Amino acid sequence: MREFLRGPAVYFFVCFLFFSLSSSAENGLAVDIVDVGAGSCTIVTLPHKNGILLFDAGNWRGKHCYSAVKRAVSNSNANIKLMVVYHSDADHLGDAASILKDFEVSNLVRTGFISSSKSWEKFDAAAMEAESRGTLIFSAARQQIAGAQFLFGDVAIRILYGKSKWDGAPLSSSEARNAISVVAKLEYAGRSILIPGDTVGRDIGGASDQCAYAEGEMVLNAKKLPLASDIIIAPHHGSDSSSSSCFIEEVSPQYVIFQAGHKHGHPTIRAKDRYLASGVKLHNIFRTDRGDSESSPFDWESDVKSFCNDKAGDDAIHIAINANGEIAINYNNPEPSSCS
Ligand SMILES: [Zn+2]
């Protein structure tokens, strides 16, 4: 495989051929946006339970991601075909080491950025150990990962971005770590979900038309690697430093999911308002910190003061896409739990 990747081709393909899939609606794709608090963990169960795909393994406490992965693997009796660790911060990889140790992972995509944090060191050691057991590692420190495509039956994952170090306009060290984040797009039954990690496209509080950094690069490259998607998991948990208007316009989503917890003021009202301005309906915006009042004294949906300090674990979101391309998005708990 590495021989192949050494060439000038931007694209490479890893194909997994499974049984041909029927078009029955009950055998569609299931996507679980786990409520891990301030962090990311998204689990995809392939049609016919033919495997699990894991996008991030955060955060650093609570083991919500690990438990959800264990459930998904046990329900489908299949291993993890692909694991993507978006960047080096613990809110994306807190559970990654234990998942790599306890489950069979066929492919791992990572930036290859070297961090000095304990959680990253544990993840890195577990990744090296997994590689010695046969996990294929696709690291931006070893090869270009933008353009990579993984095929699992009729589900395609395309990597749109990801670098081992930031080489664009100057950014703070934390924003530079965010800006190299992997960006991936899932396609199934004519539908698509953009999972953009903590990518960066704006300065916090910047002009409404700012279109910069990694998001700016992706918009410029969108003819080659299209961003257009039906659903977006809003980048960087809804930070104002991403979801730039130009990026939203290019993605043109119908549904937005904020995966955030009670920390850092995420998701921000400014990011939410840019999605609304692009035409996304408020009832098509979901958040794993339902009722949280951190970035606003008002709950978005009810305009009622909630004074909620959202806890992790109660606002998981489930996306079902059937073989006809019909999308259903729901909270696992119809009502949010009470919070402090
Ligand atoms: Zn993050």
For the structure shown, list the relevant keywords.
single chain, 340 residues, alpha/beta, Metallo-beta-lactamase, Chain A, 8-stranded mixed beta sheet, 9 helices, 22% helix, globular, disordered N terminus, binds zinc ion
Radius of gyration: 19 Å
According to DSSP, the number of beta strands is 16
Give the CATH class: Alpha Beta
Bound molecule kinds, no repeats: zinc ion
CATH level 4 superfamily: Ribonuclease Z/Hydroxyacylglutathione hydrolase-like
Could you spell the SSE succession in H and E letters?
HEEEEHEHHEHEEEHEEHEHEHEEE
Enumerate the strands of the largest sheet in spatial order, edge to edge or round the barrel: 1-8-9-10-11-12-13-14
General form: globular
Tell me the CATH architecture.
Answer: 4-Layer Sandwich
What can you tell me about this protein's structure?
With 340 residues, the protein is an alpha/beta fold. The chain has one domain (10-18, 26-331): Ribonuclease Z/Hydroxyacylglutathione hydrolase-like (Metallo-beta-lactamase, Chain A, 4-Layer Sandwich), CATH 3.60.15.10. Helices cover 22% and strands 21% of the residues. It is built from 9 helices and 16 strands. The strands form 2 sheets. An 8-stranded mixed β-sheet has the order 1-8-9-10-11-12-13-14, with no helix packed on it. β12, α8 and β13 (255-258) form a beta-alpha-beta unit. Mean pLDDT is 90; it is low at 1-25. Bound molecules: zinc ion. Zinc ion is lined by residues 40, 89, 91-92, 198, 236-237.
